[in-house]
Amino acid sequence: MSSDLNHWIRKIRKGEARPLARALTEVENRGPSARTLLRSLFPYSGKALRLGVTGAPGVGKSTLISQMTANLRRKGRKVAIVGVDPTSPYSGGSILGDRVRMQSHHGDPGVFVRSMATRGVLGGLAPTTADVITVLEAAGHDAVLIETVGVGQAEIEIMKWASRIALVLTPGMGDDVQMMKAGVMEIADVFLINKSDQDGAGQLENQLRSLLALLPDGTPRPSIVRTVATTGEGIDQFMESLDTCLDSPRRLIGGWKERLAAMVQQEVIEHIQRCIDDSRFEKMAHEIVEGRQNPYELVETVVAEVSNRKR
Amino acid sequence: MSSDLNHWIRKIRKGEARPLARALTEVENRGPSARTLLRSLFPYSGKALRLGVTGAPGVGKSTLISQMTANLRRKGRKVAIVGVDPTSPYSGGSILGDRVRMQSHHGDPGVFVRSMATRGVLGGLAPTTADVITVLEAAGHDAVLIETVGVGQAEIEIMKWASRIALVLTPGMGDDVQMMKAGVMEIADVFLINKSDQDGAGQLENQLRSLLALLPDGTPRPSIVRTVATTGEGIDQFMESLDTCLDSPRRLIGGWKERLAAMVQQEVIEHIQRCIDDSRFEKMAHEIVEGRQNPYELVETVVAEVSNRKR
After folding, report:
1. Which of A184, A229, A296, B178 could form an SS bridge with A63, CB 3.0 to 4.6 Å?
2. A-chain residues near B269 (CB < 8 A)
3. Model confidence over A168-190: pLDDT tens digits?
4. Which of the four pLDDT bands, split at 50, 70 and 90, describes residue A152?
5. Are A73 and A79 a contacting pair, CB within 8 Å?
6. A37-46, A119-128, B165-174: which is most confident
7. May I ask the CATH architecture of the domain B46-247?
8. Per-residue pLDDT tens for B73-106?
9. CATH superfamily ID and name for A45-247
């Protein structure tokens, strides 16, 4: 490894903001140093609290995360916040949410904020989020708070990399709770009823409890915590409950198993893209349409070529 | 190639229904003979009319296709009908639509019907549809009619393999026309206004014409044909217009270019799956979670192993 790279890694490990931001960009873009960075940083990861916070827009996720950050900062913990918006084309810290999330912690060197978005992230959002968490942990953050918008398939994939997952609901969402997809109910460890000073909080809690009663026997029962993010009510109680939580090894093993297969595929696909450039495929396509080549034979030739090429 | 396989290919080329159906299943499941079948059958493909018919549920696609089939049968042409429903979990001829499509041609050996669905089709629906069309053409069908439900991204991908694409609309859909995605407008060669004996057909045609006027200069103008599928009105006119149509080489080249890259990737991914079985990834995931392995190092080992393994 070059001494420049070693130098960079040392700065990341110290948690210096600019080298860290540069490393995250390299990892998101799968740049030339991404693999070495991740391999070198991985041994220093795995010890942080990775808390996923998800829920529909407007339920107060950003304010909750700000309060959780304040709680962790009071205990002297270093906090990283990762905002993931699968529907946003922007990444690298430019989305609106950042400004909101940052407000109360602006200028605090113990809080690092990063935004990610689907488009522009090579290799898939969930695997890239996992890589980003690895880097943030190695940079000395004691807690990584992952905020996703909504509860679709992308969010469920991302949440596989959290050690604890909080699903945020608000009063008046009773009917929506009935419609929640099974996958989301299953991944949540905690349901946060935010804005619980509003009418209907009790009704929502009751509906949630009857829904949770339907979970199969032996399934761990998620807990329910009432919060008021704007005043901070319920946050300390929620954060204490996390201290006693341990990572679910079953979830971690399942996540890594899928991830290893995806990583191997991604490596090989990138290898193919390096070997065979676009104009080559264009030329072959012309020859097929002109009836001079059989695509099924061409593919065998290309695969053989890719396999023999030194990596 | 084994003599059994040779025998099978001869039967497919003669258009025998059961060997053909078996070949399509082999191709859909990417079975062990799929590659050899496709390589051997490809030279006999590429001459048929490949007509894509798409549109929202209830616009009369199946009845239209039945009428188009009757038109082609009167001219002595052999017809294959491929129903693709990206939202249906069923495949292999079991969906409801088949019975409707079959009704008027049941027992006619010159008409072959096949249904496909997303789930259960390995390697993606659009590439598999292309393979299925190759086999059907090599089996001596003069026309392959491809029916898809809806106009989402999956349908647009599938329609790349059609030489001509008809988008079916019905009166009363005026507002929906305004909302049609640009991608769909661009792929259609013909707009069929079906149920054109109903009120609002003229209004729909006007709206369509003003929308088409917005297409950039130089874009081929799609034609508009009014039909009444239940009586057959307009079908002969539509079918005559196809006789003068030629495949768009640009569309074909673009399709093959994307497809070759996807085929190479698929081959390599299957190679990985043959080399590294699931329990191996499970074992590695355990070792990572126990802190005994670095996933980023493991991936390099696995990729090296896969690359060196004889295919």
Report:
1. A229
2. 265, 268
3. 999 976 556 655 655 666 778 89
4. low
5. yes
6. A37-46
7. 3-Layer(aba) Sandwich (3.40)
8. 999 999 999 988 766 544 444 344 444 555 567 7
9. P-loop containing nucleotide triphosphate hydrolases (3.40.50.300)
The complex scores an ipTM of 0.77
- From the CA of A137, how many Å to the nearest CA of chain B? 15
pLDDT, mean over chain A: 83
Q: Is B252 on the interface with A (CB under 8 A)?
A: yes
Chain B touched by A99 (CB under 8 Å): no
Nearest to residue A224, comparing CAs of A246, A202, A243, A244? A202
Are A293 and A287 contacting, i.e. CB atoms less than 8 angstroms apart? Answer: yes
Kind and range of the H or E run holding A291: none
**Do B299 and A260 count as a contact with CB atoms less than 8 A apart?**
yes
Burial of B76 (0-12, 13-18, 19+ CB in 10 A): exposed
List the domain boundaries for chain B. 46-247, 258-308
Name the residue with higher pLDDT: A29 or B22. Answer: B22
